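Example 3.2
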Amino acid sequence: MTEWKKGFGRVIALAMLWLPVACQTTDTGVEEETDYSCIIFLPIDWSDKDTVRTRERILEHNAVWEELCA
């Protein structure tokens, strides 16, 4: 695994820890967690000025979003 992939994974892990999670009570009295990560972390577009490395990172981010959220 390349160094930036390790760093990217750490950033995602930290972001998931900091995500605001809302709880709501249902009729059964059981609390349900609402996950907002698919709303907060949307796919990213790149610019013609972005480097190849930046575009690769964007493609990886978008692939993860597609797998988890689409």
